[in-house]
Write a structure and sequence with these properties.
globular, about 190 residues
């Protein structure tokens, strides 16, 4: 029941955002549209920004995790399609919340999927080096998060073919560079 109530409130906020700026949406607007009490809202969320964070975390988890991706490239292309499909919401989100806050909200979901895909694509490279896997997954999840924000904010006019071409090129460059790395990454001495 808790998830269903949160989802109802979140969907209402997304719907209201199509017609209003986030700063103009009130708790009263949400409660009137959902026919719920203010108490219900505050039981589940602190404020509207808390709802936005919940949407970011849960919408990505629902749409972009799972075993159905067999390559980083396919997953990132689908990620960009989600941003295109929901561009109005994500554009308003990017203009209202600081990018680091948004990336922080989605990073754990991104990192989980990046880690899984890295292991699918090259399990031997990371078999004995868990700390390297975590470092690479963290770096890629952060990079993908900021690439998403840049896309939503500045590159939203790019046609899908251009986005797919860019993602494919980036993934090829990473794979070519990664293929030249030794299995055990050398430790860098502290300066």
């Amino acid at each position: 029941m808790c998830y269903a109530t949160k989802r109802k409130i979140a969907d209402c906020v997304k719907s209201l955002m199509r017609h209003k700026e986030i700063s103009r949406i009130t708790i009263g607007d949400i409660m009137e549209a959902t026919m719920m009490s203010r108490q219900s809202f505050y039981y589940h969320f602190r404020d509207i920004y808390d709802v936005l964070e919940w949407i970011g975390q849960n919408d990505f988890k629902e749409q972009l995790t799972g075993e159905n991706y067999d390559s980083m490239e396919a997953w990132v292309c689908d990620l960009m399609r989600v941003l295109q499909r929901e561009h109005v919401f994500y554009e308003k989100l990017a203009s209202e919340l600081a990018w680091p806050r948004i990336v922080k909200c989605v990073k754990s979901t991104l990192k989980m999927q990046v880690r899984r895909l890295l292991l699918c694509e090259n399990e031997q490279m990371f078999a004995k080096h868990e700390e390297e896997l975590e470092a690479v997954a963290d770096f890629l999840a952060t990079s993908i998060g900021y690439y998403m924000m840049d896309y939503v904010y500045a590159r939203k006019k790019l046609p899908e073919e251009c986005v797919e071409r860019d993602v494919k090129f980036i993934m090829q460059m990473m794979c070519e560079r990664g293929a030249n790395l030794p299995v055990a990454f050398p430790k860098v001495a502290a300066l």
